[in-house]
Amino acid sequence: MSQPPSTLPSSQSSLTQAVLELKRQRHAVILAHNYQLPEIYDVADFIGDSLELSRQAAQTTADIIVFCGVHFMAETAKILSPNKTVLLPDLAAGCSLADSITAEQLRQWKTEHPQAVVVMYVNTTAEVKALSDYCCTSSNAAKIVQSIPEDQEILFGPDMFLGAYVQRLTKRRNMHIWPGECHVHAGFRAEHLAKMQAKHPQAEFILHPECGCVSQCLYMMDQKQIKTAKVLSTSAMIKEVANSPADEFIIGTEVGIIERMKREVPGKKYYPLKETAVCEYMKKITLPKVYDSLRLNQFAIEVPEQVRSQAKRAIDRMVSIG
Ligand code: 13P
Ligand code: SF4
Questions:
Q1: Residue 169 CA: distances (Å) to CA of 211, 231, 253, 265, 314
Q2: Strands (E), 183-267
Q3: Mean pLDDT, residues 265-293 taken together
Q4: What's the CATH code of the domain at 140?
Q5: Rounded CA gap, 43 and 34, in Å?
């Protein structure tokens, strides 16, 4: 195999070409989350939400997975594809929500509720997943909770806003919710809804279930103060803007997704619910870092086998439910 060049190509288009060429030489696949930068979209084989990216990681025949997302997502890819090299271009790409519960805290919580079934959002470390019975994502959390017998106590975490939304949908009383949050989504408030509603009265509201204003938004819809509001995972948002008869949307999630909407569904209008909603962890992944990741095999994600096999059980249970 020819030696990859050691200097960084000078223009963005030559860097894009260099990444695509290295990807081919290395038999690598690039998986990118919907919040990634546009230049990452340009080199990605697949762009999606957490559940879709997990599925892609499990199915790929490539030797190397370069994960353009955050650490827990790359770890999930490694759990599902232990024989592949999984690379995260910057180890500082973390997640405030995943940091909001540690394995030790979950162990302690479980001792307080020894009979409970543990359902943890995919935004958690491998160690936390290994202590869980089920994993879930924003697109299947309610379905997972509904699949658990009604009389069974549940520990749900770590996102309290997703937890409250799932509780509202499932009417589950015996569900304890961990008080964790994502620092980007928790910042969405009722005043943002009211301001945007006044500015764009015809627009459809689309919110991520991690948003701090989900309950107020659904209440406003019940009160007919808002025409339509939908609570969706990031990829379900892309499908919604494509399929909805509406022409204008207020987007309640990380603003990066709007670029994907503009690319895939041009001709409609997208207004961020909060313009400053940027996940700095997602933005740690840049094209030069992807290039170096492929060139230098950095940074390989490893998960100890015992943790991996236990975490995989929780993910497999999720995937088998949907
Ligand atoms: P999705 O699974 O909806 O893409 O959400 C992941 C995430 O980190 C949201 O902040
Ligand atoms: Fe984590 Fe929030 Fe960033 Fe999503 S937006 S990766 S939940 S910190």
A1: 16, 11, 20, 29, 22
A2: 204-207, 229-231, 248-252
A3: 98
A4: 3.40.50.10800
A5: 13
Distance 33 CA to ligand 2 centre (A): 11
Asked whether residue 314 is domain-assigned, the answer is no
The average pLDDT across 123-131 equals 98
Domain that includes residue 178, residue range: 98-183
Query: Is 318 among the domain residues?
Result: no
Is residue 136 domain-shared with residue 146, that is, in the same domain? yes
Ligand 1 atom 6: residue of nearest CA: 50
The pLDDT value given to residue 317: 94
User: Tens digit of pLDDT for each residue in 1-22?
Assistant: 455 556 788 888 899 999 999 9
Band (pLDDT 50/70/90 cuts) for residue 314 is: very high
Asked if residue 81 has pLDDT above 90, the reply is yes
Number of structural domains, the chain?
3
Closest CA to ligand 2's atom 5: 279
Measured from the Cα of 50, ligand 1's closest atom is 2
